[in-house]
Design brief:
The structure holds two protein chains of two kinds. Chain A is mainly alpha-helical. Helix content of chain A is 82%, strand content 0%. Chain B has a single domain, classed as ABC transporter involved in vitamin B12 uptake, BtuC (Orthogonal Bundle), CATH 1.10.3470.10. Chain B is built from 14 helices and no strands. In chain B, helix 2 runs antiparallel to helix 10, helix 3 runs parallel beside helix 5 and helix 7 runs antiparallel to helix 10. Chain B is globular, with a radius of gyration of 22 Å.
Chain lengths: 282, 305
């Protein structure tokens, strides 16, 4: 399980999990799960286009995820944000289906782009993934304080001179970068499970931002590791395990939060049913 | 005249049975999607719609594995998903995206497993593409009746709840103060949404179904502010896009590069997006002319520029 090609799988999947945990934390905090779904999913069309033209898949993914992020940010200023995100996504997917119908051998490629092919990672994929991950982590570190402020209290951020729109755009760009590196590895569908499940679970366990951030990365890592091991043993797609374990982690987080709340209510305020502020305010 | 219409409408278009089925199913889907979609856009629940579309691929692949028609599998899975979303908290605006996302993530996992089993057990890789991107020309004629019954049920539900649903969509607080049971109405709306998405999913494919639901409604709400008119406009846009898409796809069998035709779903989505972009023009023109006017006013008054 740890020999030969599997070394690449473990390395790249761990890098992906770290990035997903970091970016996903802000996704959940900002309530932009839809964008986190739309950008990686739409960028799949770029990969389909790249296959058609015979260029590197990463280029296609990068171009389309950037276009998608900018389109959502720009159109979202005027229209209804969620409707615009949905439309941007379906337009990219429709282009993807057109590209697929033009290229002759598509089905296995589609499957791996949508659901990932973590066990088939080649050695020359490790370096670009690691480089893009470094840029992602650096961007998050650089933006950490203003991004946190504008995610939690947009009005206060504006008053302090942090433009919400600019932060939104910065975050979408980071999301685009993260999609570009993760889609070839875990697939367009499953990066989303990882980006939402782990951070949402982490937030149920703690309300301190840095602890939640660390916990989110940790849960994402454990999810991916278990998923790879299980996939190696059973030969089922890795995405199935990532999806199920993420949902399970979230369910555990919710149970933990409910249990703690019931204890707090019992000990502190026996007669009221108001919940204590147990999570980060959004 | 006859020459131009002959080149636009390829021979045999109106005699083709697949085209008949496509036209009927497309109209039914557009009718339900336009009606439910207006509420989806007003309630800002496009993500739930999009998620249900993706979750439908789980149902589609399960139905394929079991060897039954896709519609029953899609409807069953979507109703379960809606119940899960409601339970986790899709009714509260704050946790809405998260509740949707969790259900969606779990469904993706199941969907990857089912599609994997589909491709390994049936050794037909084409199933993935058909389920995800759909092909309105492959719908069986026998699907029309169940689709019509489902859409009638969804429309009846919306008609029955029209006023409380509209009120609670615009302002949940006012509705609650007026004695509307907001959560119950919301749950019923989600049921109608699940039906609409299922119909859209068999029409233009699971992952593109959002286009039919959200696109026409979002455009219609930019053309008019009145809910009734918006629903009628959305239905018209949706039906027009599907029919024109079917026509173009039928024509495209003679287009490059292969002569195998372009996907119908591509045409439908492209047409819907074009209408959405056009629907923004009136507001854009209004804003620019008013901006110019205010700029002129600013010039007239010294010190304000």
């Amino acid at each position: 399980m740890f020999s030969g090609f599997m070394v690449n799988a473990w390395t790249v999947a761990s890098i992906v999990a770290v990035v997903a945990g970091l970016v996903g934390f802000f996704t959940v905090l900002r309530g932009t799960a839809f964008a986190a779904h739309a950008v990686p999913n739409g960028s799949f069309a770029g990969a389909a286009g790249a296959i058609l033209l015979g260029v590197n898949t990463l280029v296609g993914l990068g171009v389309f995820s950037l276009l998608g992020a900018l389109g959502i940010g720009w159109l979202g200023r005027r229209g209804r944000h969620d409707a615009v995100t949905a439309l941007a996504l379906v337009v990219m997917l429709a282009l993807g289906s057109l590209f697929l119908s033009f290229s002759s051998e598509y089905a296995p490629e589609v499957f791996s782009l949508l659901f990932g092919e973590v066990l088939g990672i080649s050695t020359n994929q490790v370096a670009p993934t690691a480089a893009l991950a470094l840029v992602c982590v650096a961007a998050i570190a650089l933006l950490y304080r203003p991004l946190l402020l504008s995610s939690v209290l947009a009005e206060l951020g504006e008053a302090r001179g942090v433009s919400s729109f600019r932060m939104e755009l910065c975050f979408l760009l980071v999301l685009a970068l993260a999609s570009t590196m993760t889609v070839p590895v875990v697939g367009a569908f499953l990066i989303f499970s990882l980006m939402i499940g782990a951070p949402a679970a982490a937030r149920s366990f703690t309300n301190r931002p840095l602890v939640a951030l660390g916990l989110s990365v940790a849960i994402a890592l454990v999810t991916v590791w278990i998923a790879i091991a299980a996939s190696y043993q059973t030969n089922y797609p890795v995405g199935f395990f990532v999806g199920s374990i993420s949902a399970l982690a979230y369910a555990l987080g919710r149970l933990w939060a409910a249990w703690r709340r019931s204890r707090t209510v019992l000990t502190l305020t026996p007669r009221t049913d108001t919940a204590p502020p147990s999570t980060i305010v959004t | 005249m006859s020459l131009s219409s002959a080149s636009l409408i390829a021979s045999g278009f109106f005699a083709n049975e697949a085209v008949h089925t496509a036209a009927v199913i497309g109209a039914v889907a557009a009718l339900v999607c336009g009606t439910v979609g207006v509420f989806t856009v007003i309630r800002a629940q496009s993500f739930a719609a999009e998620a249900l579309g993706d979750i439908a691929s789980t149902g589609g692949s399960a139905a394929f594995l079991a060897g039954v028609g896709p519609l029953s599998g899609i409807v069953a899975v979507d109703v379960v998903a809606v119940a899960a979303m409601e339970r986790i908290g899709v009714q509260r605006a704050r946790g809405r995206d998260l509740a949707t996302g969790i259900v969606l993530g779990a469904a993706f996992g199941c969907s990857s497993l089912l599609l994997y089993l589909d491709t390994t057990e049936h050794s037909t890789t084409g199933a993935v593409v058909t389920i995800l991107f759909g092909s309105i020309f492959t719908i069986a004629h026998s699907t029309i009746l169940p689709a019509a019954l489902l859409s009638a049920a969804a429309l009846a539900l919306v008609a029955l709840l029209y006023r409380p649903l509209l009120l609670s969509s615009v302002s949940a607080e006012i509705a609650a103060a007026r004695g509307v049971r907001v959560r119950l109405v919301g749950a019923c709306y989600l049921l109608a949404l699940a039906t609409a998405v299922s119909l859209a999913a068999i029409t233009i494919g699971t992952i593109l179904s959002t286009a039919l639901l959200v696109g026409p409604a979002a455009s219609a709400l930019r053309f008019t502010r009145r809910p009734g008119q918006a629903i009628a406009t959305a239905v018209a846009i949706g039906a027009g896009a599907v029919w024109l898409g079917v026509l173009l796809a039928y024509d495209s069998f003679y287009w490059p590069p292969h002569g195998t035709g372009w996907p119908v779903s591509f045409f439908v989505v492209a047409l819907i997006f074009a209408v959405y972009l056009i629907s923004g023009l009136p507001a854009l023109v209004r804003r620019q002319s008013s901006g110019r006017r205010s700029a002129q006013l600013g010039e007239d008054r010294p010190g304000t520029a």
